[in-house]
Amino acid sequence: MSAERVEVHPTRLELLRLRRRKALAEGIADILQKDLDTLIVALIEHKQRANALRTRLYESLNTAYSLFIETEMIIGTMKAREISSSAPLIKFSVEVSSIPGVLGIPFPSFNCAKEENAVLKPRFNLIETPIQLNETVSKIEEALNFIVKLAELTAVIREILEILALKRRQINRIRFKIIPQLDATIRYVELILEEIERQDAIRVRVLQRKRKERAVKSV
Amino acid sequence: MKPLEYKDIMPRVALENLKLIEVEDLIGLIGKDLESIRCVLAGSPYGEHISALSVDRMDSVSLEAALLQNYAETLKKLVRFSSGSIRKLLLAFLKRFEVSNVKTLLRAVKGKITVDEAMRHIVPVGFLDTNRCRAILAESKSIADVINSLADLEYGLIIKNVPNKHKKIEDLLQLETALDKAIYEEILESAERLKGVDKKIARDVLGIELDTLNVRIILKCKALGVSQELIKDYLMPTVLFNEKTLEETIKATTAKAAISCLLIVAETGNVVYKNIFTQLLRECDAPLSRLEAILDKAPLKMSLYMLKEYARYYNIGFVLAFLNLKWVEIKNLRCIIKGAERRSPPSQVRKLLTLPSEL
Hints:
The complex is a heterodimer.
Chain A: H1 12-75, H2 77-86, E1 92-100, E2 106-114, H3 131-218
Antiparallel strand pairs in A: 1-2
Chain B: H1 3-6, H2 9-18, H3 23-28, H4 34-42, H5 47-51, H6 60-80, H7 84-110, H8 115-119, H9 130-139, H10 143-149, H11 154-166, H12 172-193, H13 196-224, H14 228-234, H15 243-251, H16 255-266, H17 271-282, H18 288-296, H19 298-309, H20 316-341, H21 346-352
Helix pairs in contact in B: 2-6, 2-20, 6-7, 6-20, 7-12, 10-11, 11-12, 12-13, 13-18, 13-19, 15-16, 16-17, 19-20, 20-21
């Protein structure tokens, strides 16, 4: 597929300009490729962190469920259910901010903020509930923190993927559109210039021949 | 001790004692599915209550309710055959179910549990029968409504005074603690009315229950980081460990220091106290769940010790030992049923059982 060329005046000055533009485009493509590589490395790192976090989340949830089942086994399903549903709620909120990430791109940052009471009080009946219920709660709180951090990592990964796609489009545009266009234009200008050069050479030769004929006649 | 007071109740307790499930049979239930457990229980003394359950809605909650119903019925039966101070003590025991029902009513309203669901958690006893509980749940929209509905009962009066003191009616823990304190005080008072050996046995058996409860409360609150001043509000009536000892325990910086403090006093009590607290000190670095399990076994250990120490018949020890054994059996069955429903590993279920043979 031949690339379309840019409409330019086929002059030597324009040729120089086009060559400069091509060199610049290749430079930009190289820089973008380096950014792309950095982003891919960052993406892999974040993916690995997300996997590790997901494993820890599953571990926390498994421990929490196991402890809650133990609680149910000790105090009975009925008590566990009524105590859990009537316990004071723990209020959580997720604080969203942004932090500078790789290549200075702002990455989202999520933080789980728990409303702390001024006076620390037990949440469940102290003589009816085993410590396993409190341990369940702390494991669930831990899991909630992991969930928020996992959401943050997912948001960062999405951000990186969007930027990766953008960079990839920019590189493709430069490599497969702009540079071939410039190449075609340069070739065209070079051909025109060569053609003009050939015409000029013929014109010079004709003029020289005519000058020689005039000199012979005058002699 | 008046032998005449025991002439009707003792044969009844002996009969009920024979109905207890053998430890081997109980262990044999571990790992079985819910339907198999239901079939086994249908052929046991719990059969009457288990058979009344609908097979379509068979779950751990309904089986658990049947077991608790059986315990309450057994207790009611013993009350019918008892007289004098023993009757008063058993009635105080029965009131635990009423208190449990009051707590269920409060929790159901706070937790917005539906009336039908909440009614599955009620064991109708005494003044709080099914109709009354259903009516209270249907009419109450808030904790204050439940308190007003119970105004004619002693529990209503107990919890009515709590919000004034703590100014926060929504905090169920204060209400529940007030109810627990009141019922334990009544049980202790009933025990104090007994005479001679009966009084000593009842005081020791109920005393270790209350003392271990207080130790559990202190250890748990310290683990949760609750302030020293607040811990005192949650303590139950004291018996061997007086308020001063408990205060020193609360002030202790580590679990080891706290248990050491208690062991000094426990050594002045009988051998069960000493054994329990020596074991606690030995395992003080273990997780709190392990310490709680040791403390939970104390009342049963004391009951069995009292059976060995005093003549089998004509004292309250046999009655209290039976009640503790029956309660432990129900707790074990509950544990096995839940384990079966959740498909828990048999080792986990076995770990949570309290077996009298291992005490």
